[in-house]
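Deliverable D4.2, example record:
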Amino acid sequence: MNKINKRDFGSLPSGEAIHLYTLRNASGLEVAITNYGGRIVSIQTPDREGKLADIVLGFDDLAGYTGKNPYFGAIVGRYANRIANAEFRLDGVRYKLSRNNGSSSLHGGAVGFDRKVWDAKEISSSGGPALELTYRSQDGEEGYPGTLNVTVVYSLSDDNQLRIDFEGTTDRSTVLNLTNHSYFNLSGNAGSRIEDHVATIHAAEFTPVSQDVVPTGELRSVADTPFDFRKPTPIGARINAADQQLQYGEGYDHNFVLNRTGGTALAAHVIHPGSGRVLEVLTTQPGVQFYTGNHLDGNVKGKGGAVYGPRSAFCLETQHFPNSPNQPNFPTTELKPGERYHETTIFKFSVAR
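Output generated by the structure prediction step:
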């Protein structure tokens, strides 16, 4: 039976209670989400033998998420990815943001949406159980202009599609770029590495970066580079190639320019040959950040005491391009009063026999 189960997930130092919401569909797939950061805490999916396992990295309790962690499962905002020099100009005004990644502002700044308590409620949906999360970001939060009202809806269909709808409105011109930052390991063994996963990314170009991992503004062809995933390729096949871009990212940590002309299109397909688990990512966004967990250093212990070491997960963060506010040739991320930001991402789960 489709439903959402709500339970306590701990309390913040302020005493505010946090909850965990578990969505189940008729196929037996389960997705657990907390209203702290709107984070996906677990996704239980079957392998080809029907055995369920959790395929996302995270923690068993709230304390792990309130401590230092790399955005496991979080809603990221106001601006996903990096803004160079932690500043941008909009309508002739320079806005200075908090620096939290070298000279850049990363994933919304020092206290981004991943650290906020979202209002949560179950809503009716024809697509299965649905959880609506809302948050009001005040004018000037982390340096961004405008009071921003954000709504994120997670819904789970019976054909194993986890849909995420992002919406936002503002009372002043601002920039907005939202994503979900789940770390996937389709093997269901969070301590294992993901080089054996086979990935396809529907992108003919990517945005190369400078040494600080901020896009230079160039759109570069993936042809004859380690970034060509237009055909199914093991993630580890070229990850250690002698390539300057891989050196800058310490692996893959790059925005791919998706081949799409509108609507919700297939961005990526990943299969774990051993278990048969398949993840497809569909989105309305123009880009996706492919990240291979390069900075997981083994110092983070997650669910069940699992040690999260380098390349023990991958991320496919659907997005507008990093540093777009400072790159006029990139798709715009400006949001003006009277406009509505609306982007959709779908994680579709299946099994290859």
